[in-house]
From TrEMBL:
This is LysR family transcriptional regulator. The lineage of its organism: Bacteria, Bacillati, Actinomycetota, Actinomycetes, Kitasatosporales. GO terms for cellular component: protein-DNA complex. Belongs to the LysR transcriptional regulatory family. InterPro entries: LysR_HTH_N (IPR000847), LysR_subst-bd (IPR005119), WH-like_DNA-bd_sf (IPR036388), WH_DNA-bd_sf (IPR036390). Residues 2-59 form the HTH lysR-type domain.
Length: 305
């Protein structure tokens, strides 16, 4: 393993052309610099310098190693600068996870603004359901989640994550325009006794919320289509194969043959940011603020009831 201090000595000789000038630049004595270079030659197992008149010159092996040294020293300098900036700067990796509707609706605009303001930030995004993403947050694999919580079935979180509610929105019943109840201004789930359902897979927040909402109205759920994406569920709804519970955020885009009817009694969904408590670093804080701004802009545009 090469010593960084000795590689720095070789890089200085390559840059300044002599031991004397390199020693002066490094603020050490020429003899001290020569000792470092001699030890580096033993580590490399090759001659790095050779006599040239009354001075020295770098051998081919020395130039090769000096090139690597320059790149390594540049990288170390960048690492030192990044660490010095960590207390205040928004930079480095930001590993995000979220439910598909929040990822699609909120994150693109938020990340566009965030990376424009902080070009050294490197976000990555994984979509999925809270049941799959929460273990990755708790293990440290992800930094921040956008998860959903339904009023009739609040998301359960183990001890550890901090939470902030970003969006509160109405949930609608999606029906085909061919469904006999599609023209009603509002509907009670009990009126859909003979209607099959499309929902996210069992174990997810939307599925469990649907099951509890139907059972609260005396119905046993008939979920025939377990589909992760709301848009795919709506494709089944359009063909009058099923109904679906759809939050406001997922109403767009929708197939033209789908109608959205208000629930009686009403049901709402929240999108929450979750991150490990005590680990609210600058990238996490900045991202939460950016998503809040994206959600507020969406409300001002009339996309939420």
């Amino acid at each position: 393993m090469f010593s960084i201090d000795r590689l720095r000595a070789l890089s200085a000789v390559a840059a300044h052309g002599s031991i004397a000038r390199a020693a002066e630049a490094l603020h050490i004595t020429p003899s001290g610099l020569s000792q470092k270079l001699a030890k580096l030659e033993r580590e490399a197992g090759r001659r790095l310098l050779e006599p040239h008149g009354r001075s020295i010159r770098i051998t081919h092996a020395g130039r090769v190693l000096a090139g690597h040294a320059d790149r390594l020293l540049d990288q170390l300098s960048a690492a030192e600068a990044d660490l010095a900036d960590l207390a205040d700067e928004v930079l480095g990796p930001l590993r995000l996870g979220g439910v598909g509707s929040a990822v699609r609706t909120l994150l693109p605009g938020a990340l566009d603004a965030l990376t424009a303001a902080h070009p050294r930030l490197r976000p990555t995004v994984t979509d999925g359901e809270a049941v799959d993403l929460l273990p990755r947050l708790l293990s440290g694999e992800l930094d921040l989640l956008l998860i959903e919580s339904w009023t009739n079935r609040p998301v359960f979180l183990p001890a550890g994550p901090a939470l902030r509610t970003l969006v509160r929105e109405e949930v609608w019943v999606a029906l085909s325009g061919r469904h006999p109840l599609a023209d009603r201004p509002e509907i009670d789930l009990a009126d859909l006794r003979d209607t099959p359902w499309a929902s996210c897979p069992p174990g997810t927040e939307p599925y469990e919320a649907l099951v509890q909402a139907l059972r609260a109205r005396g119905l046993e759920p008939d979920v025939r289509f377990a589909l992760t994406e709301h848009l795919t569920q709506l494709a089944m709804v359009e063909r009058n194969l099923a109904a679906a519970l759809v939050p406001t955020m997922s109403r767009t885009p929708a197939p033209p043959g789908v109608r959205f009817v208000r629930l009686r009694p009403g049901l709402r969904r929240e999108i929450k940011a979750a991150w490990p408590a005590g680990h609210e670093n600058p990238p996490v804080r900045a991202c939460v603020a950016a998503v809040e701004q994206a959600a507020a802009a969406r409300d001002e545009d009339g996309d939420a009831p």
